[in-house]
Amino acid sequence: MSQLKLTRRQFFQVTGAGLGSSSMAVMGLANAADPVFARPAKLEKTTETRSTCPYCSVSCGVLLYSRKDADGKLRVVHVEGDPDNPVNKGTLCAKGAGVLDMIESPSRLKFPEVREPGSNAWKRISWDDAFTRIVKHMKADRDKNFQSKNADGTTVNRWNGFGALISSASNNEAGYLSHKVLRSLGVVALDTQARI
Ligand code: SF4
User: Fold this and answer.
1) Cα 46 to chain center, whole Å?
2) Quick check: CB of 182 below 6 Å from ligand 1?
3) What distance in angstroms lies between residue 91's CA and the mean position of ligand 1's atoms?
4) How far is the CA of 115 from the centre of ligand 1 (A)?
5) Would 1 be classed as within a structural domain?
6) H or E segment at 109?
7) Is the domain of 67 the same as that of 95?
């Protein structure tokens, strides 16, 4: 059997070329016309959008990569931590790293629904309809349950028939405004989903 003889320089040239081409393939950067390296780049033709993980009060920054599928529907295809976000500097915990499954879940609720009194079925409604209904219910309940003074005659101005949960995806300013508006209505039962 003949032996392959390589000088030290030739050895590094050969192994370096092999490593380079396989690394290129892993990164999806190799020549697409070459059948060996035909895999497309993972983030090819995607749009990058900055967002915030919705799961907890840490509010890590995430990068969402989306692209249109064969039906022309925009889909998120990849999520990773935002390295420029000072909160998480590119890292995500297991929940945040799995946010893609929540975004693309077939059971995710994407529009308002209502279950009318006496019905056991949920019905889709428009956002305008949803907001109008919410405001009407809030006004009716506040008119009925608002308490200006307690049993001792002390001014309390509270509305205990209503509670609110603020989104953990809110920034400081949105959280501050939500708090001010709800407190001005007399809401006592107020919390943020970030604490759950
Ligand atoms: S759930 Fe995890 S990734 Fe999301 S904000 Fe909290 S710590 Fe960050």
Assistant:
1) 17
2) no
3) 9
4) 32
5) no
6) none
7) yes
> Domain span at residue 62?
47-103
Report whether residue 97 contacts ligand 1, using a CB cutoff of 6 Å: no
- Give the whole-angstrom CA distance, residue 39 versus residue 116: 51
Q: Does ligand 1 have an atom closer than 6 angstroms to the CB of 92?
A: yes
Tens digit of each residue's pLDDT (9 = 90 or more) over 128-155:
999 999 999 999 999 999 999 999 999 9
Q: CA 64, 196, 166: angle at the middle one, nearest 5? A: 70
Q: Which residue, 25, 27, 64, is CA-closest to 46?
A: 64
What is the spatial distance between Cα 51 and Cα 88, in angstroms, rounded to a whole number? 13
Whole-number Å distance, alpha carbon 166 to ligand 1 midpoint, is 17
When computed from its CA atoms, the radius of gyration of the chain, rounded to whole angstroms, is: 28
What are the phi and psi torsion angles at 132 (to 5°)? -60, -45
Structure tokens belonging to residue 51: 């967002």
Q: And the tokens for 93?
A: 């915990």
pTM: 0.62
74's CB contacts (< 8 A; 6+ apart) are 66, 67, 68
- Shared domain for 126 and 177, answered yes or no, is yes
The distance from CA 22 to its chain's CA centroid, rounded to whole angstroms, is: 34
pLDDT of residue 4: 61
Compute, in angstroms, the gap from residue 81 CA to the centroid of ligand 1: 10
